[in-house]
Design goal:
elongated, 144 residues, single chain, alpha+beta, 16% helix
Length: 144
């Protein structure tokens, strides 16, 4: 029989490995907390979640798929869900359906986000320390 700590360690190690993989624009991993209402029983469960979000740009709606571990649940300590939500600055909140728990789920957690126009906002400093925009290609090509 497996100890409860091993399942939690596996989820945390998997999450840490995934965070390095999803550090580019596009899909992104979320690490956070989840809550199920308990269905007909009425006893909700608090859990730890790892989700794959459809986007990592701030201030956008997202869809997600994830797994959760409920350490305080009496039975069914794991969950698998699909959800939709909103991605803010380094934070996401999603709501959806957990298939293993057969219940609604609400999740919130950390996401490594990027600003929507991150590339447009950058300005390179000139050698004099001014923050001028770099010369255009045409300016480089001008012949005197």
């Amino acid at each position: 029989m497996q100890k409860n700590g091993k399942g939690l360690k596996s989820i945390l190690v998997t999450g840490m490995l995934m965070s390095g993989v999803f550090s580019y624009a596009g899909p992104q991993a979320m690490f956070g907390l989840s809550y199920t209402w308990g269905g007909a029983i009425g006893e909700g469960n608090l859990g730890l979640s790892v989700k794959l979000l459809s986007d990592n740009e701030e201030d956008n709606p997202v869809v997600a798929a994830g797994v959760s571990y409920y350490p305080w649940a009496y039975t069914d300590k794991f969950g698998v869900d699909v959800s939709a939500g909103y991605l803010s600055d380094s934070f996401a909140i999603t709501g959806g359906w957990d298939f293993l728990q057969s219940d609604w789920i609400l999740s919130a957690g950390y996401v490594n986000t990027i600003e929507e126009n991150d590339d447009d906002d950058r300005m390179e400093p000139s050698p004099s320390g001014d923050t001028e925009e770099p010369p255009s290609e045409e300016e480089y090509m001008e012949v005197e």
